[in-house]
Amino acid sequence: MTHPNDAHILAVDDSADNLFLLESILSECDDYRVSFAEDGGTALEKVTQSPPDLLLLDIMMPGIDGYEVTRRIRQNERLPYIPILLITAHDQSSVV
């Protein structure tokens, strides 16, 4: 089991403003370390190299979107189970 101070959160969003907001919120607590990625491809690389304990993942990104990142992670049997929280700045249910 991961101790709180060893916990790792990976936040992924293609919007610099959204990443700044996530960083502002997540940096208020010292119980975990946080890293960031700006696209799905980079997120997959980081997850493969060092699987996080939690993945905060934007749904709508150019290239590899959040749904595809989730699918690829779940299909990779070499990875441990990673909780994934899909996030979006969109407020219309038709977009998601």
CATH class: Alpha Beta
- Major sheet size, sense and barrel closure: 4 strands, parallel
Write down the overall mean pLDDT.
Answer: 90
Structural category is alpha/beta
Rg result: 13 Å
Proportion of residues in β-strands: 15-25%
Anisotropy-based shape:
globular
* Sheet with the most strands: spatial strand order: 2-1-3-4
Order of helices and strands: EHEHEHE
CATH architecture: 3-Layer(aba) Sandwich
Structure summary, number of beta strands: 4
- Tell me the CATH topology: Rossmann fold
Low-pLDDT runs: none
| Helix proportion range | 25-40%
How many DSSP helices?
3
Question: How many structurally independent domains?
Answer: 1
Measured distance between first and last alpha carbons: 34 Å
CATH superfamily: Response regulator
